[in-house]
Amino acid sequence: MQRASVRGQILDALRTALVTGELRPGEVYSGPALGERFGVSATPVREAMQQLALEGAVEVVPNRGFRVVERGASELAELAEVRALIEVPVMLRLARTVSAERWAELRPLAEASVRAASSGCRATYAESDRVFHRALLSLSGNRQLVQIAEDLHRRAQWPLVGAAAMSRGRAELVADAAEHLALLDALIARDLDVVRALVGEHFAGA
Question: 190: helix, coil or strand?
Fold first, then answer.
């Protein structure tokens, strides 16, 4: 259990480093070097990196380590399209069936995402953003859907290559988070046209 705990902590740290751009796209990182950075052996780092490889964040470079995958705007657009194809119909169905009271219960999570965005920390906002979207989709009762959607969401949060890697500033994060509150308002009002538009625009902006 202790080993699994260490691996989990390293995985969380590596995911944060990916979101913030500390682990740069195209760069190769070795298990021993990262282990030294985190103050652990290379073994939990390699195990965590293997998980990231399964998720598509890194690729194995034999005898060297792991290369952070380089992503362009076209891949981000593809992810946005897939997320919309999966989630928009679900959100429209939920908008018709979930009570206003249930949606209102999620407002603290939406407000927390605004505070996280205001901090300007990409990693803090990324986690808060996923928590909010996970809570929305959990109302569907479909665990497979939630898991697939979260995997796509996480992939969409990895930075792009080059100068675009850190392009989203505090103002853009706050605007993105504000859409969470607007979406809740539309869901409570059962305004399906606004729900459809907001979800589509939110994914495109992510």
Answer: coil
